Structure formats: C-alpha cells, structure tokens
Amino acid sequence: MLKRVHFPASYLPYLLVAPQVIITVIFFIWPASQAVYQSFLIEDAFGLSTEFVWFENFEYLWGDSHYRSAFGRTLFFSAAVAFLSMSFALILAGFADRIVRGATAYRTLLIWPYAVAPVLAGALFLFMFNPTIGIFPYVLDMIGYDWNHYLNGSQAMFLVILAAAWKQVAYNFLFYLAAMQSIPKSITEAAAIDGAGPIRRFATIIFPLISPTTFFLLVINATYAFFETFGIIHAVTQGGPANSTTTLVYKVFNDGFVGLDLGGSAAQSVILMILVIGMTVIQFRFIEKRVQY
Amino acid sequence: MAGIKLDTLTKSYGDTEVLHHIDAAINDGEFVVIVGPSGCGKSTLLRMVAGLESVTSGDVYIGDKRVNDLEPADRDIAMVFQNYALYPHMSVRQNMAYGLKIRKLPKDEIDRRVREAADILEIGQYLDRKPRQLSGGQRQRVAMGRAIVRDPQVFLFDEPLSNLDAKLRVQMRLEIRKLQKRLGVTSIFVTHDQVEAMTLGDRLMVLNAGYVEQFGTPIELYERPASVFVAGFIGSPAMNFIPCNASGTSLTMPNGIGLDTRQTATGKVLLGVRPEHLTPDATGHFKMTIEMLEHLGGVTLLHGILDGTDIQIVASLEGITQHQIGEVLTLSAPTEKLHLFDEATEKRIGD
Fold first, then answer.
1. If I label A63, which of A34, A106, B242, B257 is the partner at 20 to 30 A Cα–Cα?
2. Per residue in B69-94, pLDDT tens?
3. CA A44, CA A261: separation in Å to the nearest integer?
4. Which chain B residues are closer than 8 Å to A200 by Cβ?
C-alpha cells in the first residue's frame, strides 16, 4: 500500500513556483513569441515602416541558396565537432579509467576547459593560430605549410571546429568517465581472463556498454554545436572568410544585427527554435527511456 | 591439466601486509576450498592466482610454469565471479563463445563446445536470451558454462553461490561438485560458508587474518583442528571452549570440577568440546543450567551456562528431548573427543 499525503489546496505552491514561471515568461516565452511575430513582418532598413507578410520571409529563405548552404555547413560543423570532441573525450576517459594513482588530479585538470567561456576559448585559438604571431602557423611554416585562416575558408572552418570541440571535450570526458566507472570491474576482469587485451576489451565490452552515454552525448553535442558556438565563431572568424564559417546561429545574428533584415533573421531563429524543440523531444523520448542493450 | 603451487606468497597494500607467506601445493584435479571470515584475504589470494592482483613476493606456479608475470589470459584459467560478471549486452551464446572467438577457434568448433556445455548445464533453451532475462540460478549456470567451454587447466570460483537463495545454493553446490569430479579440472573455490566448504572441498584451506590456520581434508579439520580458530570455525553449532587449569593429564574447570584427558599439558589451557559430542550422563563432568531450547526436529540444541560459571555452552542432543528451562543437566563427552588448546598460543595440544 502506498501512503499518500494530502495537503489542503492553497496558494502556497503557486507562490513557490511563481519566480520560475515569471523568469520563464519574461526571458523565454515573451522573446520567443516576439520572434515568431517578427518573422511575419518585413521592415525597411530605417525601421520607419512595417508590413505584415505572413510566410513571405520563410518562402524567401526556402529559395535562398546562401541559407541552404549555411544549413549544410552547420550540419557538417556539428557532426565534426561532435565526432572530434566525443572521440577525443572517449580516448581520454579510457586512459583516465585505467590509472589508479593521481586519478583525481587528472580528472580535475581535464575538466577545466569546460569552465572557459566560449568567447575566451575562441580568443585562445585566435592567438595560437594567428598567421602573423601565432605559434602554430610558425610551426606549420617550418614544415612548409602556409596557414592563413583569414584567407582560406577550409582552414577557418577547421579552426572553429577545433576550438568548439576542444571546449566540449571536458564535458564529454566527464560523462564518459562516469559511464566507464559504473561498469562493474568484474566484467572487464572476466573479459581479461577470457583473453581479451585492453583494446579488445574496450571495443567489445566497454564501448557497447556505454552506448547509452554515447547517444546522450551525441544529442547534447549536436545541440551545443548548433546553438552555443556563436561566441567562438564570433571571436575567431566572424563567419568569414566569405561566409565559410557562417553557421545558422551566426547567420541569425549577421542578417539581423549587421544586415538589419529583422524579419528574415526572426524567421531563421524560428526555424532554429523548431530544431531545438525537435532535439529536446528526441532527448526526452529516447534518453529518458535509456538505450536498451 | 595441472596442479597449483604457492611458494611463500605475500601480498601487501602499501605498508600493510594482508597475506603472509602462504605455502600450499594443490594436486592435479583436486578441489580446494579457501574458507575464512570476511577480510581474511581469501579473495585476494584467489585473484593473485588468477593474475588480477599483483604478487608482492613469492611465486605462483600453475603446472610447472611460474605465472607471476603472465597476464590472466595467458594462465589458462577460468573464473566464476560472485556477481557472475556476464556481459550484459551479449546473449548467453555470445557470452560463452567470447573467449573462444578471441582464441580464434573455428566457428563449428565454437558451436560444438557451446552446445556441449549448454547441455551439461541444461541451459540449451536459453542460448539466445540476454543475461537480464535469466534468473539468478540460470545466470550462475551461464557463468559456469563460460568457464567450462574454455576447457582450462584451472577453475577459480570467487564465492559464486552467495547471491543465490538457500535452496538453490544447496542444489548448485552439488552440481558444481559433480561437474568438477566429471571434468577433473583442478579447482579453487573461495567461500565464507563453512558448510559449503566442508561439502565441496577435497581439502580446505582455513585462512584467518592473512595466515593459513590449517590446510587439510574436511574430516581432519573437524576431528583434529589445529587451532582455536579452526575449531570454532568448522562445525555448527560451534565448538564449546572452557578455560581450564591443566596439570599432567588432569584438568580443573573454573567451577572446580576436574576431569582426565588423554593429552598432557600444564598451565592455562582451553578445553574444546563439540556440542554434538555431549550426551546426558549422570556420571558426567559437565553440569549445565539450561537457559534456552531450540527444537530443530532431528536434534535439539540446549543453550546454557556451565554450572557455577558464566561460560556459555551448547549441547546438541538427538531427537526431541523433554528438558526444561532452568533444569540442571549433567553431560559427558568421550575422552577421545576432547580437544585441548594452549590458551596463549591458541594452538592444539597433543595429537
């Protein structure tokens, strides 16, 4: 028998959740609804006249080749960031799981990058890779490779991917390490006795057993790369050269606040909003249930 | 097939020595049970044989080969863990085949061996299930199956029955025993349960605080325990101990009653009598005030104190007896069933 405690109805619970509700309404619901409304408007560049145009902004985006290429670029960027940061975190966690002495020190150090603000992470990489004064271009120059991400779009893309991935490694590492440490030791010992070496144990036992974490991180990293890398891109490349690092989020900013196309920018952010809602649904539907093996 | 030899084996964690100079020779095909209370180092010892713990000093031999520096995989052993340690993402078949695949056996040979082991353990119909779809007893069998298919030189069991319920434990105990006799593989079995140890082992190694107290057959341990610890650990209910003063072959109990022994000793000793060796006898030396009765059907346990002292003693009488609480009962035990231990060293005196 479950015992249930009943409280008389009162205003207290409403009062207690009120601050959270007010914050959500003011900072999330209201701006979001404004964005939706804005996306139905076309404004002239001086903000003197406004016209209600229904879905014209969306129709324009649909036919805009710049927007479509930004979409593809963002997908590539997200996939690359997720793959790079997750695989690197997996390797680090694999090693950190094996060490006994000084494990806490390693863990603490490996978590630090997560505390760095995106724009600062961007600034770090900006200096390291600056074609004039950076250390990496200097080294690359010695082996005869010419680095200039201000001119070379692929190099610029590589740089923002690297910076974005580096910052996310710490987060992924933490989750992977926790997942690995929750695997009973006797299972890996049994595999060792069965004759599996460290690499084989990792591939056939550990990796399959942490697959729920991998899936969870995949969604988290995709969300991160889609929405939270604005600071890095803004600091490192400003979307350039020639839009080669303009992702969807960056394009929202660029079209709205630089190009002053408020309606088009709002329409883009509505599309992003739909995407993030979709990702959240995926996360809740599948991750809360946990991947079954 | 191979025997196992432990040569002055020692294990330390930092400055703490947890196993002290263990020497033992286990014959080919023998079933040895390491038994002792929690924290005595029995699992550590087993894991050292398996290669899961490093050896601080001394040597481990499997067959004629010194295996100190070999990886667990190269020692040709199989181990059954307390929590079974089945791979949760693999079916029963894949669990059992894992080690064979790594050894790159041909596919039909793997299938044959898995099928054979599954038949022996009667888990043939579960081969395509995942471990979480099995009951505790079935998981236990799969863990055994995974050990059998490998056809190793040595089986190592780390308290494999302690997660099963009482009835299943007795059944699996018998099955493990039968299986080991049938396969004739040298086995080491670790347990804290003395009944399990007595019924399974050809020989028992009693471990206490990192020392081997005694290593012998169950009957030897029961009839001639080498120390107070072994005497108290083996047998249920536990042996009674009465501190006495000895002079030659005569003892004086704390209540002033004297009795004769076949052993010769002087000074303070502990007299050990098993509850089942006490019988009502008006001419006996043990006067007991009954404080509690336990009727188990086949036997009746009488709990009480030795008259005139505060020493707890237990007597196990056959059948259902009509004794009352508060009654003073006189008991005797045959002289050849009396054990004598030095009170200071706790070692056995005499034969």
1. A34
2. 888 888 889 999 988 899 999 999 99
3. 8
4. 102
Specify whether the CB–CB gap between A40 and A57 falls below 8 A: yes
The CATH classification number of B240-342 equals: 2.40.50.140
Domain ranges in chain A? 65-290
B31 beta partners: B187
Task: Find out if CATH 1.10.3720.10 is the number for domain A65-290.
Answer: yes
Domain spanning B4-233, CATH architecture? 3-Layer(aba) Sandwich (3.40)
Give the one of B52, B82, B87 whose C-beta lies nearest to A187's C-beta. B87
What are the pLDDT tens digits along chain B (351 aa)? 688 998 889 999 888 889 999 999 999 999 999 999 888 889 999 999 998 888 999 999 998 889 988 888 888 899 999 888 999 999 999 999 998 998 888 999 999 999 988 888 888 888 999 999 898 888 988 998 999 898 889 999 998 888 888 888 888 888 889 889 988 999 999 999 888 899 899 999 999 989 999 999 999 999 999 999 999 998 888 999 999 998 888 889 988 888 888 888 888 999 999 999 999 988 888 999 999 999 988 899 999 999 888 899 999 998 888 888 988 999 999 988 999 999 999 999 887
> Could you tell me the pTM of the whole model?
0.77
> At which residue do the structure tokens 């006495």 appear?
B244
Alpha helices in chain A (DSSP H): 12-24, 30-38, 56-63, 65-98, 103-111, 118-128, 135-142, 153-181, 185-193, 198-201, 207-209, 211-227, 230-236, 248-253, 262-282
Write the DSSP assignment of B146-204 as a string of letters: HHHHT--SEEEEESTTTTS-HHHHHHHHHHHHHHHHHHT-EEEEEES-HHHHHHH-SEE
B43, B46, B48, B52: best mutation site toward chain A, by most A Cβ within 10 Å?
B52
For residue B189, give the nearest of B35, B40, B68, B75 by alpha carbon: B35
> Chain A residue with minimal CA distance to B72?
A193
Domain ranges of chain B: 4-233, 240-342
Residue of B36, B184, B156, B163 whose CA lies nearest to A189? B156
pLDDT confidence band for A293 (50 / 70 / 90): very low
Contact A194 B73 (CB under 8 A): yes
**Taking Cα atoms as reference points, which of B215, B213, B195 lies closest to residue B205?**
B215
Which residue on chain B is closest to A190 by alpha carbon?
B85
In terms of Cα–Cα distance, which of B221, B194, B214, B229 is closest to B341? B229
Of A186, A204, A293, the CB nearest to B85: A186
Q: From the list B89, B102, B130, which residue is nearest A208 (CB)?
A: B89
Task: Compute the mean pLDDT over every residue in chain A, rounded to the nearest whole number.
Answer: 84
Distance CA A288, CA A284 (A): 5
Q: B99 and A208: CB-CB below 8 Å? A: no
Whether B153 and B63 have beta carbons less than 8 Å apart is answered as yes
User: For residue B146, which residues of chain A lie inside 8 Å, CB to CB?
Assistant: 190, 194
